[in-house]
Amino acid sequence: MAIRSIVKHPDPVLREKAITVTKFNANLHKLLDDMADTMYDADGVGLAAPQVGISKRVIVMDCGDGLIEMVNPEIIAHEGEQFDYPEGCLSIPGLRGDVRRHKWVKLRAQDRDGNVFEMEADDLLSRCAQHEIDHLNGVLFIDIADRVYQVKPGEEE
Ligand code: ZN
To answer: Does 138 fall in a domain?
Structure first.
């Protein structure tokens, strides 16, 4: 496992549409391991492969209930709305935004061995999943936020 460097906006890789993973091999496992290491090292709750310069449809998340790995994730159902949580991004340090997100989502993805699974997420995990899946489509939170603002010095968590 290794910590990779996090790509910062406006690197063009963050604007690419990431490609679907078709090989569930050692390279993918190494990428997933490194992404988790990198996310935890940066105190993040989610990370998408384009953020480490790899334009593939892979995300990792941990909103406090353990590591979740998703390959080729998609939102297959959603309900409600939430907009009361300041959203940030490891690729855009120092900024936060008010972003409207679905309150609840149902996700379908593959695990590191290619097995398809579904899971439901609400509140922070739902927001995180939507944010990370946006990364796979070249979308950043600053594109869709109602309001973007600077984090005051010392407030960066
Ligand atoms: Zn992000």
So the answer is: yes
